[in-house]
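Class, look over these structure tokens:
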Amino acid sequence: IRNRLYEDVKRWQVKKPEDELWTGSKLEQVLELRKDDNFNFVLGGFNESANQFIDASVGIRDRQLKKARIIAGVGFTLAALASVGSAVAFIQQQAAQSQIILGMTRLTESLLLESREFDAMREAIKANQKLNHLWIKDANTRTQVELALLNTVHSLAATNALEAHTNWVYGVSFSPDGKMLASASGDNSVKLWDTNTGKLIKTLTGHTNFVNGVSFSPDGKMLASASADNSVKLWDTNTGKQIKTLTRHTNQVWSVSFSPDGKMLASASADYTVRLWKWDADYLLKEGCDFMRQYWKYYLPDDQSEETMCDGVG
């Protein structure tokens, strides 16, 4: 390789053209050889002209590498900028589409106000289709489309209106299985509705003033109603018959609610109290026997057998 190098050095020394310099594997070989101690000690290494040739080759190589790195960096930067530009343009396009969809939902509202329900429905469905084609769906746009659909569907679905009360409706409650709805009204009644058909099942009467609220028991077999007549009434949802009237409140009762296990009912009243009514048989028996024991401290039992009827209770 040294002999070949010397031949190329002679040609290069005439005009020193850059295209005569070595590159690639040939240059790497002579560079390794120049660093070899045995080659330098035994064979004397390369002469001065060869070393100048090698150094010039290295210089050309380094300049080419630097230029390639600069070109690559510029290319990468331009590619990154192009990607960012594309992303920004895409986001702007998506935002513009969202504004168009929001405009469609506003048009839906206007059409409903003009009693043009079918046109409103058409516009709401188109808005939903456009929303489904968006890659970026913001929460507000999605909510407005859902509300537009909700309003138009409810405007067209007349069967969704349950009409039988003759005064304001103050409260409603679904049965646990969702098949029945109870409504409380200022006409002093509670009505039970079939949620699938919208038909009236039963009317529960017995309150003497407004009914403010209703609540189903967890098993759906019992309904509690709160009334402005100061009472809470319990109803059998299967027969519609009144089971019990709870009358400890001294002012109207606003609302009622069953506990998750169905063993307790809470009632809220304008008499500034919340009352808890318990259905657990053991609890009620204990309370009853505690009362009787206090009573027998001052009054003798009517029958001697009564003295032992609460033995083992509590």
User: Anything to note?
Assistant: The first helix runs from residue 2 to 15. Helices lie at 2-15, 24-34, 37-42, 48-113, 117-133, 139-156, 281-296. The longest strand covers residues 169-174. The mean pLDDT is 84.
